[in-house]
Every structure is written in structure tokens, then in C-alpha cells.
Design a protein that fits this description.
This protein is mainly alpha-helical. Helix 4 runs antiparallel to helix 5.
Length: 259
């Protein structure tokens, strides 16, 4: 298990470096393959030695080697966040095939949350490929472990969450964008694989966190009452928290006294 956690940290750091490219380029409709990453100030391509996750940022003292322009701390933070998130997910899911699916979900949600936070969009170029990849991995997991009932439940949860969000979008498109509707397919599938309780918990946490943050920002006059908020960020947080500690929260819920 220790080797798996170490491997996931290293893998997460590398994937996090790629996510930095995705976060900048995809919403701007740019290729994530070409051209090579370059300094946004002097346009000098970044050498391989200066593209080592976290290490290069520290070694360069957060400045471009060529023009000495500052390098945003967002880059190493995204890399570190991905590494930590991958390790936590591996600890939660264990050495099983479906771990690959949840690592894909982690990467997709981290990229989507940061894009939504900055630009208030959830690009379909990330949502749909992630949905296809996660579905394929879960089909393999269901085949190897004879978990077809689990996959069936996950598919039903995915469609149920999509239907709910689709109706909410029809009723109030200003409150819930269609990007969130698309994303619900991925969230329902991933959480449905864990169980129906996790789906309900993920939905509850997403809305609770969103409501608390939204009310706080309005009360402190950081945003206007009619100003849109990046709901995808809260969906991502609620889903990730549910994946990591959902069983603990649900067990406490079942043990609460009832009248």
C-alpha cells in the first residue's frame, strides 16, 4: 500500500503539470499538445529541466530562466494538490481497477473547478472525454470483479442526477448552467459506483457548501445577489469529499439518534 501511495503522489505531480496546460488552454480553445509550453512573458519555450513538477519552480525561485518574469504559484499548487488528492484517493479506494476511474475523476474535477472559478465555464472538451474514460474503466472493473449490479446502479444514479439537473436548468437556466447538467453525468456515475447513499451525500454537500459560501460572499458584499457563482467548484468539492470520507459521514448519520 505504501508503494501505491508513493506511486500515486508521483503520478499526481506529473498529471498536475499537464492539468496546468489544460486549465489555461482548453477554455481558450487551444491545443493541449502544440505548441510546447512557453513563458507567457517572453514566449521562450520551457526546457525539460525547467518543467519538473514543483522542483523546477523552487529551483528557479519562481522566475523565468530567460526573462526573470515571476511564475505564478498556481502551477506548483495545482501539481501538489493533484499529488495529494491522488494519494488520498488511493488510500480510500485501494489497489483495485476502479482506482483508475477515481483518479480520472480527481483530475477532471480539479481542472474543471479551477476553470469554472476563473471563467464560469465547464468545457465539454473535458467533461465528455472524462465521462467516456471513467465509464470504460468501470466496465472493465465490473467485468473483472463481476460487479455488473454495481455498474447498473451507477448508471441509474448518473441518469437520475442528469434528469434532476436538466429539469432545474429548464426551470431556471440562470441559476444552473448546462455545463453543470453535463457534469452531473460524471458525478452521478462515480458516486453511484460507491453507492446510492454517496450520491445523496454528494448532492447534499455540494449544495450545502455552495449555499454557505454564497451567503457569506453576499453578506460581506464580495458579490451581488444576482451575480452568478461557479457552481461547478462546489460540485467538485462535494464529490471529492464524499469519495474520501463518505463512508465515515454516512456511518455517523446512521448512528444518529432518532425520535
Amino acid at each position: 500500500m505504501t508503494l501505491l501511495l508513493i506511486y500515486c503522489v508521483v503520478l499526481g505531480l506529473a498529471i498536475g503539470s499537464f492539468l496546468n496546460v489544460v486549465i489555461y488552454r482548453v477554455p481558450r480553445r487551444l491545443s493541449v499538445v502544440r505548441p510546447r509550453s512557453a513563458c507567457p512573458n517572453c514566449a521562450q519555450p520551457i526546457a525539460s529541466r525547467d518543467n519538473i513538477p514543483v522542483v523546477s519552480w523552487i529551483a528557479l525561485r519562481a522566475k523565468c530562466r530567460n526573462c526573470r518574469a515571476p511564475i505564478s504559484p498556481r502551477y506548483p499548487l495545482v501539481e501538489l494538490a493533484t499529488g495529494v488528492l491522488f494519494a488520498l484517493t488511493a488510500w480510500r479506494v485501494g489497489p483495485h481497477v476502479d482506482l483508475i476511474a477515481f483518479l480520472l475523476v480527481d483530475a477532471a474535477l480539479l481542472a474543471l473547478a479551477l476553470i469554472d472559478l476563473e471563467m464560469l465555464v465547464l468545457p465539454r472538451a473535458i467533461v465528455y472525454p472524462s465521462l467516456i474514460a471513467v465509464t470504460a474503466v468501470l466496465i472493465v472493473a465490473a467485468t473483472l470483479d463481476d460487479q455488473w449490479h454495481r455498474l447498473f446502479v451507477a448508471a441509474l444514479c448518473s441518469m437520475a442526477w442528469f434528469a434532476l439537473f436538466f429539469i432545474m436548468n429548464l426551470v431556471s437556466p440562470r441559476s444552473l448552467g448546462f455545463g453543470d447538467v453535463r457534469l452531473s453525468l460524471l458525478l452521478g456515475l462515480a458516486l453511484g459506483w460507491l453507492g446510492v447513499g454517496e450520491v445523496v451525500l454528494g448532492f447534499f454537500l455540494s449544495n450545502l457548501i455552495g449555499a454557505v459560501v454564497g451567503v457569506t460572499l453576499i453578506a460581506t458584499k464580495r458579490i451581488r445577489r444576482d451575480q452568478p457563482i461557479p457552481y461547478g467548484v462546489f460540485l467538485a468539492i462535494g464529490t471529492i469529499v464524499t469519495v474520501l470520507v463518505g463512508p465515515i459521514l454516512l456511518s455517523h448519520w446512521h448512528h444518529w439518534p432518532t425520535t
